[in-house]
Amino acid sequence: MIEPVKRPAVNSSLSSASDRVFEYIILALASIIVLVFLLSLYQLGKESWPALQKFGLSFFTNREWNPVTSNFGAISMITGTLITSLAALAISVPLAIASALFVAEYAPKWLADPVGYLIELLAAVPSVVYGLFALFVIAKGLSHWQQSFFTSPEKIATYTHCKSLWDAGTTSFQCFFVPISFDGRGLALAIIILTIMILPYTASVARDVIRLVPADQREAMYALGATKWEVISKAILPYARAGIMGGVILALGRALGETLAVAMVIGDSQDSIKSIFSGASTMASVIANQFGDAQEQIHRSSVVTLGFTLFFLSVLVNYIARIIIARLTPKGIQ
Amino acid sequence: MSAATKAMTSSRETTLSPVRKTTNAVMGGLILLATVVVVLPLILIFLYLLREGFASMFNLDFSKGFAGAFQNANLNFFTHVPAPEGEKGGGMLNAILGTLEMLALASVIGVGVGVAGGIFLAEYPKHPLMPTIRMISDVLGGIPAIVMGLVAYGLMVLTMGHFSGLAGALALGFLMIPIVVRTAEEVLKLVPQTVREAGLALGLPKWLVIMKIVLPAAAGGIITGIMLSLARVAGEAAPLLFTAFGNNQVSTDPLKPMSALPLEIFRGATSAYDENQRLAKAGALLLIAMIFVTSLLARRFSRLK
Questions:
Q1: Domain coordinates of chain B in residue numbers?
Q2: ipTM surpassing 0.90, yes or no?
Q3: Nearest CA of chain B to the CA of A93: how many Å?
Q4: What is the rounded CA–CA span in Å between residue A267 and residue A280?
Q5: Nearest CA of chain B to the CA of A151: how many Å?
Q6: What are the pLDDT digits (tens) for B44-85?
């Protein structure tokens, strides 16, 4: 009979002691992550408390944002954030999926690699650089077109008609697309630059997910005599939809918090939106534009409350993304 | 060809109805068109930055023709601080140094906590705190950079009573953590279980297995993750607006206000002065070049391993 080998006792006690120390060190360092989260929550909560105490929940329903009278409500920034993010998402998602399909399904390798790489580089361009491009190039182009509404006779008529509507506090469908000023800045420019910025996130997630679709899935569909588009629409996209939706929601999270590019071009106005070219503001843009200048404590606190709202919004969006990925993932894929 | 096969081929061709055929072609065309629309802005941004940024960086003036353009060429952009408002000829030395110093300080936080977090998630999967830490790390990754700036403002600027480069570095470090955690965890999980078992079978304690066997095996991937996270936070201006704040002089003291490239680009681009706008364009080119080189190196690194 073979005697079972016994582990040397000395060594084992030594190693378990050092193991425990190592585990504690790693755990302590990893706990800093939790600490950062709790500290953020505490800081934001503490600093937004004066505003929340003064305005209560009406902070989220009040239209007015007035540093002079110290009356603050966030509804115009909340709408601004939602409009810019959702519009940018609506424009960019179809484009992103199409470009992902091109890279993964259509393009030959010599073209797919550079195009895919270009799209990834787009994701690495910093927000300020997009803002600079929007301000120096796109805004100039927009402004050129907008000036025609103040120079050419028949367009002046449209503008005067719309101006009377705007002054009365309303707008019409046609007037919604007539420029209200001619410096190029405003809601439309913010949506354009936001669209360009979130495209690469959705596109690269969609491409990765589409590449993961098993070849059998495609081949089975081709064997039935399907065309390429039928394979894409009936076999590939349904299989990849969970991942794509996840990418879309992550892009939404990014759009909601996108700050400087938007702050640079949106015009920082809290008036009601009468035209797609009128100035507006988002929660993030107000933090960037006003926090540094806010003198009164209640103004400062109101701006931090916007940050607190953004914090919760991003946690919520993250959570929804997980649920969607879990729900929509076809059975059998992890 | 016999009549029978001819009939067969022709019947096979007709099975694809014109509707299906056109749909297929139209959708293919639309997909190509959409891709062009996606790639076009990037090419435009690059061309713009290369043309304008390059001329701004070296003070070239192409309106004087190609030979005259280099008349006033200089390297002031890299060696001078911004000129006083309204004057010409400044540079961004303060911002370049500030960015590098803050990134170095941010790495201490981001890499230390991030790699430890990755080790914890990958090597102690049965620990009761594991799911919480993973979830919170993911949540942190989704929090907008500007909100992190507000947090660092409250933590550092309010307590110290003044803006500082350290506060900016803290905000950037917080932003790095979740990116490093995620890549470190993924890379560590790629190290085969058998490698760990081999180490344990030799009688090594678990911590030595992790430090001497698993970490070196995953080092390439972890370094890639760190470089990508650096590239990501290097371009952030939002969290620096009210933490590092900016400084027109060269300052290497982390307890004083400090400048950074993205901050100067933001201020310059929104400024009314031509000179500030010129510096912003040059700064944007330099920043993009730094970020792309870092991401390229990161890719190279992960491929070599």
A1: 3-68, 81-304
A2: no
A3: 11
A4: 6
A5: 25
A6: 998 999 999 988 888 887 777 777 777 778 888 898 888 887
